[in-house]
Structures are given as C-alpha cells and as structure tokens.
Write a structure and sequence with these properties.
four-stranded antiparallel β-sheet, Rossmann fold, 527 residues, 12 helices, alpha/beta, Immunoglobulin-like, twelve-stranded mixed β-sheet
Length: 527
C-alpha cells in the first residue's frame, strides 16, 4: 500500500514542531517516542515525523504499508500511516539516505498518564518494604511481567517555549518486567490502569508517563489557552512578571538576604538559640510551577503522537482556589484536545483522596471545593472521574500520597472500559443529581444509583442547615435510589452537604462498590 504524503492532512501540531530549533542536516532521525518497543495507537491514522536533509525522500513502512514524504527546506518531514490493527511484535522501517529499523513495535491502546506526585508515585512504592503496602508493592513488582504492557517515562523538563522532542527517564520505551517495573519511571496508577485494560481487552497497551510532583494545572496548560480566558490570563501574566523581576531579586537575595541570614545564624549559635531557617530564593525561570512551562517541556513534544486518551491525577497544588479550578481544569483539557487534533479524546481523572485527620464536626475546606470543581468538569463530554475519598492510608492519614494505587488505577480503567471500549460495567459511584426540600426533609436523587448502600451500620457524612446556614449532622436513610436527609434541629432545611471536608465522613456506595462523590446542594455558595 503506497500513500503520498499530503502536508495539508498533518495537524497543526506537526507544523508547530517543524518551526522548532534548527536541525543538523544529516541522517534521517526520529523523535524519542519512536523507538524500539514503542506502542502505536490502533484504529486511527498514526502520524510519524522526523528530520533529515532538505529535499530528502523519506519512506515509512510497517504492516504492509509504505508511506512517503519529502523533507521541507528546514529538513522536516511527516507522514500519516493508515489505521493499524492491534498486534505485534512488528518492525517499522524508516528509510532516507540512511535506514532506521524499529524492533518489537506493538499496536494497541496508547494513553497519556499525567499530573503531579500521586501520578508520579512509582509502582515500587515509597512505603518501607516491611510495611503492608511495601509488601504489596514488592509483590506487584515481582508479578509485573507482560511484554505487551509498555511505558515511556518522560524526563522532567521546563521550557519557556514549546519543545519539539522529549527524552525518556530510561532512554527508551520499557517492556514490563520485574526489573523495569522496579524503576522510578513506572507510575503505579498508570500501570494498574494499563493492567486492567490488558486483562479486559487483550491488546497491547502503552503508557506515556509525563508528570511532576507538586505542580499546578496552569503549568500543564499552554500560554495561548491561559491568555484566551480573562479569568485565567492572570496566571500567566503574574508568572511572567516574576520571571522578569528575577535578575534583580536574585541579586538582592545573593548580596543582601543570604549574608544577613548567615550573620543571624552565627549570632544564634553564639547565643545558644535555634538557627533561623535559610530564606527561600526568588522564583527562577526554571520553576516547574511557572504557568505553561510543563506544557512546553513535557506535553507539546508529545504532539501529535496518536493516543486513545489521557488519565490525570492532580489538584492538590490548586486546592487553595477551587472556584478558579472550575475554569482552569476544563480549559487545560480542551487545550490538550485542540492541540492533539483528535476531537474530544477521552480524559479521565482522579478526584482528590481523603487527607489529614478524619472530620468529626461539620466544617469547610479548600479540598472540598477542589473536589467539587473536579466533579463539575464531568460536564465536558468524554470525561470520567475516579472517586478516592476512601483510599487514604487509615494508619497514616497525614500522608498526601495514599499508597493504594491499585484501586485508583482500576477505577480509572472502569471509565475507559465502559465509555470507550463498550463493556457493560458500572464505572462511577453515585453522583448527586437533584435535591427537593419538602417540609423537614431533603430528598436527594443520584445518577449511578443502582443498589445504593451504606458501608457500616448507618449512613454517615450528611449535614443539613436551614436559612441560617448553621450545619448540623443529619440522619440519612436510603429509600430505593434516593437518600432522605432530616434533623430534628432543622425543621425547614434549605441545604445539604455530603462528605464536605478534607478527610470527610461518608459511606454511601452503589452496588458496584464505588463510593459517592462529595457534593453540596448549593454549589454557588462562597463556602
């Protein structure tokens, strides 16, 4: 099968890539994503691109296809393979003045796995080996032996402009073995997500892991997307002001702040007092929290590699501004979708887990509003959410990194299996739909409400208030697919909240054993 390359069919992403840094006029070369053991997406056209001498004829061959192109004046070339059928191993041959042969290529499902440290959390775990989760992690690593489950871990990189290539933590796509799974680049959530797809679909699965602990969503969003929204452009502009001021601030830090601190340290030692903490320096241009910097360095270089969708675990670093996240998170998702030019590709995300001490009195919390913003993002088509307020480590609630990543990955996979791959499985816990207030009762209805049940002796986690907004714990009972909430202290209720705290009470589940998402019936409330 011979297809002539038509530059008009290549996406804007390839054109942007072609405007990157000057390339050496030499052998045909490929981005790092195309290498031995790579996984190509099945069922849709597959872009392949690279560099060579200006005017050089290049061909790409795999599975009986041969597609040709000619490099442009800058030495850039790109082709699109027609849709491939799942399978492997295959060889892919790229021929110009030289020949590259990629070995052990698989065709199947390719997913991006991104976010902050809970996505970065490695399969080998951060638990002590003799702890319960440490022992489970050792067992998971020992059993990780699947030649058709593969991972490409993107090396961390910040950039002030979109980049045209990435490197891998290990320099290549890794085939899953106990040895590779023990490496730090193997995301636990991504692995367990992929393992579920492998078990249910029986096709190769590739995970492109690109995450960075402690980073906010604006760092993963392009400059253009942030500046296009009046409510978000300040995120980019404020960072650029800080970067512009950096040289002068760094000079003050080096020449005044640090000498003064050193003097204070010596005085504290002489007085037998605790030493003052070293002052932090000003934000420099390579700060990974800088708006758009991780999009530039760790997302843009992946474009337009063919993918099935993305999974995302992030939000802790934006928990101080849940209402802003209502705009920011959907904007990031839509930005990625536009850049990939694959339509509304599936995007599944993890709602923040429970954290810190368990709630004992009705209270407020920034994490509750962030979870609400995540739930609101389900209004975007082809999105799904894994609720995890029941997965934090009971013996260590202060750990912001719950170690049970197996259930996180499995719950994300349910979204994919049901909504992407057409399997008849429940994929979501109960989601609040509507509240009706009748006399002293609040009657709540839900979606995904088949078989509502309480884990425990009684239903917990509901608070109720009247017009005075003084919340008290409520009695809650399941009636079919509804929950009826009352309190003898609130004769005329106007608002109900459920699991509304950083580490909430809440034990409402459905028949599929999936937990209900936290909610409030007054989402426009300032608190």
């Amino acid at each position: 099968m011979l297809l002539k390359f038509n530059s008009m069919v290549m996406t804007l992403s390839v054109l942007a890539w072609a405007m990157g840094t000057d390339v050496a006029r030499a052998d045909v070369k490929l981005p790092a994503l195309f290498g031995d053991n790579c996984v190509l997406q099945r069922g849709i056209p597959v872009p392949v691109w690279g560099t060579g001498d200006a005017g050089e004829a290049v061909s790409v061959s795999i599975c009986g296809q041969k597609v040709e192109a000619t490099t442009d004046a800058n030495g850039r070339w790109g082709v699109k393979l027609a849709a491939l059928t799942a399978g492997g191993p295959f060889e892919m041959t790229i021929t110009g003045k030289n020949t590259i042969v990629l070995k052990n290529v698989a065709v199947g499902e390719v997913w991006i796995a991104s976010g902050q440290s809970n996505m970065e959390f490695p399969l080998k775990s951060w638990s002590p080996p003799d702890s319960p989760y440490g022992k489970k992690a050792l067992k998971d690593v020992a059993e990780a032996n699947d030649p058709m489950l593969r991972m490409f871990a993107v090396t961390k990189k910040t950039a002030d402009k979109p980049q045209d290539n990435v490197t891998s933590v290990k320099g290549q796509w890794d085939v899953t073995t106990p040895q590779t799974a023990a490496g730090g680049g193997f995301t636990a959530v991504g692995y367990f997500f992929a393992r579920e797809l492998r078990a249910k679909l029986n096709v190769p699965v590739g995970i492109i892991h690109t995450s960075w602990g402690g980073t906010p969503a604006e760092a993963w969003t392009s400059r253009e997307a942030l500046e296009a929204d009046p409510e978000l452009k300040g995120l980019y502009e404020s960072w650029e002001k800080r970067i512009a001021a950096y040289p002068e601030l760094k000079k003050v830090y080096d020449e005044k702040t640090i000498p003064e601190w050193k003097t204070a340290v010596e005085k504290a030692k002489a007085d037998g007092k605790p030493e003052p903490r070293k002052p932090g320096g000003p934000a420099d241009p390579n700060n990974p929290n800088r708006a758009a910097t991780l999009y530039n360095g760790m997302i843009a270089p992946l474009l337009p590699y063919a993918i099935a969708g993305a999974i995302w675990y992030q939000g802790e670093s934006n928990a101080g501004n849940g209402k802003q996240y209502r705009k920011l998170f959907p904007a990031m998702i839509q930005d990625w979708r536009t850049r990939w030019a694959l339509g509304g590709f599936p995007f599944f995300f993890v709602q923040l887990a429970n954290f810190q001490q368990r709630q004992t009195v009705p209270n407020e919390g920034g994490w509750a509003q962030l979870r609400e913003a995540q739930t609101m993002t389900l209004a975007l088509p082809h999105t799904g959410m894994a609720v995890t307020i029941d997965l934090a480590d009971a013996d260590n609630p202060g750990d912001i990194h719950p170690h049970n990543k197996r259930d996180v990955g499995a719950r994300l996979a349910l979204n994919a299996l049901a909504t992407v791959y057409g399997q008849k499985v429940e994929y979501s816990g109960p989601l609040f739909k509507e509240a009706k207030f009748e006399g002293n009762q609040a009657i709540l209805t839900f979606t995904h409400a088949d078989g509502l049940t309480a884990h425990g002796d009684k239903l917990e986690g509901f608070v109720i208030a009247g017009a005075d907004r003084k919340f008290v714990w409520a009695d809650a009972k399941i009636l079919g697919e509804t929950v009826v909430v009352t309190s003898d202290k609130v004769p005329q209720p106007t608002v109900v909240r459920y699991a509304w705290a950083i580490n909430p009470l809440g034990n409402l589940y459905n028949k599929a054993n999936l937990p209900a998402s936290p909610f409030r019936t007054d989402p426009d409330s300032p608190q």
